Amino acid sequence: MQNIRKYHKEDNYSYSLGVFTTIELLQNRPQDVLKVLLSNKSDRNKGVDKIKDICQKNNIEYVYADGQINRVSDKENTYAVGVFEKYNSQLEGIDEKNQHLVLVRPLNAGNMGTNIRTAVAFGIKNIAVIRPAVDIFNPQIISSSMGAIFSVNIEYFDSLELYMKKYNPKNCYSFVLAEPSSRTLLNQVTIVKPASFVFGNEGEGLTDSELKFGQKIMIEQSDNVDSLNLSVAVGIGLYRAYIS
Hints:
Layout: E1 13-17, H1 19-28, E2 33-38, H2 47-57, E3 62-64, H3 66-72, E4 80-85, E5 100-104, H4 109-121, E6 126-130, H5 139-144, E7 153-157, H6 160-167, E8 172-175, E9 184-185, E10 196-199, E11 215-218, H7 230-242
Parallel strand pairs: 2-3, 5-6, 5-10, 6-7, 8-10, 8-11, 9-11
Antiparallel strand pairs: 1-4, 2-4
Helix pairs in contact: 1-2, 4-7
């Protein structure tokens, strides 16, 4: 592989920064791991023995390389870095075991990572991303997802319409920022599963053309703020679906 450098979107590899996220990478995507970098101080961390064990079982190289770790991580206490080849995935079809989270034009890396982890927490492991959107292999997203990204399928689409044409969800719920006509408050809606749950970005939400898909839902809130943070809205919406 190329000489390791700070992450660049055009590279064909990326990094899991930290012991926990590297364990998640090794457990879920061992076939994509190129090597693991360990700090000379890493033996102080209990999780490093697990990293070594998984590497040995899967014939994955691990090396002590503080200089390379410092090159790719801004944190002083990064004890492990997983170097992995970027991969493509497709969503599983919607059925009793597989539902979809659809994120339309997500542009905030921190929110994206949180949304991935939240989806996994509520049993959703298929995420459609509508462009323009963040780069899911940005190490910031991987870290903010706490490695949950390695246990989900993520597929990009150029429009919400293309996603709908490919997967044709029978039940679709679109979460809105404002109060368009025909919207239903979340606490009043009956969620029928399996389903797709669609969220726009915080700045503009969903456009009029995108709102033609599915039932429009609004999370009721006070007038003290304009809108909820996207990751908070996703958490509330998916929890409501999870307990339905």
